[in-house]
Task: inverse folding
């Protein structure tokens, strides 16, 4: 009897999702069986990242206001939470930019951030 490896199902779905994305499609995160692990603050930020539409951007400051309202949450705190995201393309932290529209803070490198944003246009 052959053992079923659950990890392979997740991997296969992730590969399919990435394939669809890089073919120019707009796959949905709900199609992936992913569970996030992080602090409550990080989870709030990551879940909001999932709401940023393909081809759109938002500043760290705007993201903080959407999540926490008028509370004084620093852009740096939002940036730190974004930087802890390990699913760089799937959880679209590349869509978060500086308040002046500059491409800042991407773990994959600014050149890749630019590529992903251009790819989504």
Result:
């Amino acid at each position: 009897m052959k053992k079923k490896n659950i990890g392979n199902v997740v991997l296969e779905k992730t590969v399919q999702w990435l394939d669809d994305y890089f073919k120019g499609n707009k796959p949905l995160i709900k199609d992936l069986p992913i569970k996030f692990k992080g602090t409550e603050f990080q989870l709030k930020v990551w879940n909001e990242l999932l709401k940023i539409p393909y081809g759109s951007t938002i500043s760290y400051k705007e993201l903080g206001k959407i999540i926490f309202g008028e509370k004084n949450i620093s852009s740096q705190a939002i940036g730190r939470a974004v930087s802890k995201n390990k699913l760089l393309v799937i959880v679209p932290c590349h869509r978060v930019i500086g308040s002046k529209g500059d491409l800042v803070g991407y773990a994959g490198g600014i050149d890749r951030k630019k590529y992903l944003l251009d790819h989504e246009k």
